[in-house]
Amino acid sequence: MTAEALLTLEVEPTRSSVTEPALLAVIRAARDGDERAFEEIMLASERRVALLAWRILGDAEEVKEATQETFLRVFRHLSQFDDQLDFFGWLFRIAVNVCRDIEKRRRRRWIFAPADEGMSVASDARAADDVLAARDDAALLTRAIDALPGKERLAIILREVQELTTEEVAAILGSSPATVRVQVSKARAKLRVWIEAWRGGAR
Amino acid sequence: MKMTGFRSQQPLNDDDFAAIRRNVMIAMAARNERRLFPIVMRYAIAAAVIVAIGIALIPRRAATPAAATPAKRTVVIASAPELAPAPIVAPVSSQPPIARVAHRRRQHRAPHIELAHQNIRVEFRTSDPDVRIIWIASQTPPQTGGKS
User: Fold this and answer.
1) What is the pLDDT along chain A (203 residues), one digit of tens a residue?
2) What domains appear along chain A, each with residue ranges and CATH number?
3) Which DSSP letter does residue B11 get?
4) Residue A136, C-beta contacts closer than 8 angstroms, at least 6 positions apart
5) Is B136 helix (H, G, I), strand (E, B) or coil?
6) ipTM of the complex
């Protein structure tokens, strides 16, 4: 399947919108101060959080930081979690916010970093990516998604890569489902153009 | 390959996840301690305030009787010289003057208690050598009175 075909792939919403009773019992125990229960929550969700952070941030060290910070925020705000909602939706919302904060910090770092250093790192990374992109569709897609504007990138990662429903993505991003649909549509169009241009340039 | 293939490989291994869990648990424990600290401090401050009030009040209570005693003493002592020079004639009692006795005893005993049980005896001589007016006054405040 080509990269263009990937962009038109529709994902079936199969996720439940409520928390499973077993997980809910563990969450309640953790809320009452049971540290062992909180550790169980981490064991059940850490890989999904880390993968989401990896897709957004693309840096292993930042993923560690984001995962840790996400669970600390979960611990701080667990009392505010509504039992009627999906826990993973709530957890992903926190994780996305943490990743956004890390990205903001990263941008600030780039602004204040010496110009020569930033350029050399960027050019090295780009050269390495170019090699990968030329031979791998996945790497090409990665580069294309990373080149999207922030909101569109998050929308397409959550909707197409994480396979969340439009409503879930809207809840995580704090926007309406209509907005998410527009953002995903724009992102797809940009990806298509970007990939076609890349393919055309490579030939 | 699907679009889900975008960064589909988990970047962290089991050791990384274990380290993350450990760090989170440590941070949680530290946060719980920090949350308990203000509560402990609140109780400690309340206890310190109570102790301070107690320390401030106890010496005052102890000082109150000590301060009241000289006042009573003054009243008692003052009454003796007032009564003594009142008569035209000097007292003929064989006892030494009451004020002196009171003063002397005050040095050794609790004067308030001693003076409360003493009587003043004043003897008036008239023009008739056979007639004498003897006035005995009690020092106890409610039992004032005389006898002739």
Assistant:
1) 444 444 444 333 345 556 788 888 999 999 888 889 999 999 999 999 999 999 899 889 999 999 999 999 999 999 889 888 889 889 999 999 999 999 888 877 766 655 444 444 444 555 555 555 545 677 788 888 888 888 899 999 899 888 889 998 998 899 999 999 999 999 999 988 888 887 776 55
2) 16-112 (1.10.1740.10), 116-203 (1.10.10.10)
3) S
4) none
5) strand
6) 0.70
Distance CA A140, CA A134 (A): 7
Residues of B in contact with A78 (CB under 8 A): none
Residue with tokens 């990516």: A129
Residues of A in contact with B36 (CB under 8 A): none
Residue A185 CA, chain-centre distance (Å), reads 17
Cα B4 from Cα A6, distance rounded (Å)? 9
Closest by CA to A54, choosing from A45, A41, A46, A63, is: A63
| B20 to A67: CB separation less than 8 angstroms, yes or no | yes
